[in-house]
Amino acid sequence: MTSPPARASALDLIGNTPIVLLEGASEAAGCEIWGKCEFANPGASVKDRAALWIVRDAEKRGELRPGGTVVEGTAGNTGIGIALVANALGYKCVIVMPDNQSQEKMATLRALGAELVTVPPTKFADPAHFVHTSRRIAEETENAIWANQFDNVANRRAHIESTAPEIWEQLEGRVDGFTCAVGTGGTLAGTGMGLREKDENVRIALTDPYGAALFNYYAHGELKAEGSSVAEGIGQGRITANLEGLEVDTQFRVSDEEGLQWVARLLREEGLCLGLSSGINVAGAVMLGRQLVAEGREDPRVATILCDTGFRYLSTLYNAEWLREKGLPVFDWLRSS
Question: How many structural domains are present in the chain?
């Protein structure tokens, strides 16, 4: 077994995450389902990649100068990534997030030294939306940049240049399908585009939670949301700059209940404690795998993203009272609590 290489900088720990065969999902799909372990990044989520690329891009363009501040609106994970990158490079950061996100994310951001601003959740069209609030703060702060993860294509480029080639190399150049949910669109678009550069026949699929509009957009050409989801950091109601130019081959929609079934199975059967977005991604990967098998592809392989650690949701997904309040099934092992 080869040991991981020595790293010259803590920032070099971002990316090059392991990929793991998911036995239960593979059995359910009838083919190999692989999970990219993005919880192994220093900030414990896939968003570390976008954070690093966005900051480095701003430096390269001369917009972020020594002693500067990075401002961003986020559901939490991108903010955590930015806080770590900013600390490593000597910048300050201000993070704006909706006040309905997990307490663990808020506590983590404060612990990392970020200035945290919380706002009530609202529609994107509302000027008080967390994205617009973060933009205004950046404009009003001297020597500051707005990370703008939704429409900053440095986000997408992170996955074209790192996530996609890593998956391709790890799976020895045999990838038949890739799917994940969309928050900013950077992961799906970047990884999808990067894999298609390797093989134009890779099937790219959107996996959407309820309450998001992209399923209907790719299926019927209309941005229309139906239902709702408690998943944090995914679900989009518009075509962001990161999504522009992405061709999606197929699309799936997954309920919170089905996503939670996979969260439970991944923990109880495989020892992986993950968030709901990962459960939704795995559910979509199983659907994509079944589709490829039904079409007659020989021994197809599907990759997806295991977005972040479940330890970030101890007060929500792994809390029996919270699940009952949301009308969601309580994991068997929590029912006595």
Answer: 2
The catalytic site residues sit at 47
Residue 96 identity? V
Q: What is the pTM of this model?
A: 0.96
- DSSP-assigned letters across all residues of 106-164: HHHHHHTTPEEEEE----TTSTTSHHHHHHHHHHHSTTEEE--TTT-THHHHHIIIIIH
Q: Domain for residue 333, yes or no?
A: no
Q: Is residue 332 part of a domain?
A: no
CA torsion 76-182-278-77 (nearest 10°) is: -10
Helix axes 77-89, 47-60, angle to 10 degrees: 50
Q: How far is CA 179 from CA 159, 195, 250, 267, in A?
A: 13, 11, 9, 21
Question: What CATH number is given to the structural domain containing 305?
Answer: 3.40.50.1100
**How confident is the model at residue 75, as a pLDDT?**
83
Q: How high is the pLDDT of residue 336?
A: 80
pLDDT value of residue 337: 62
User: What average pLDDT does the chain have?
Assistant: 96
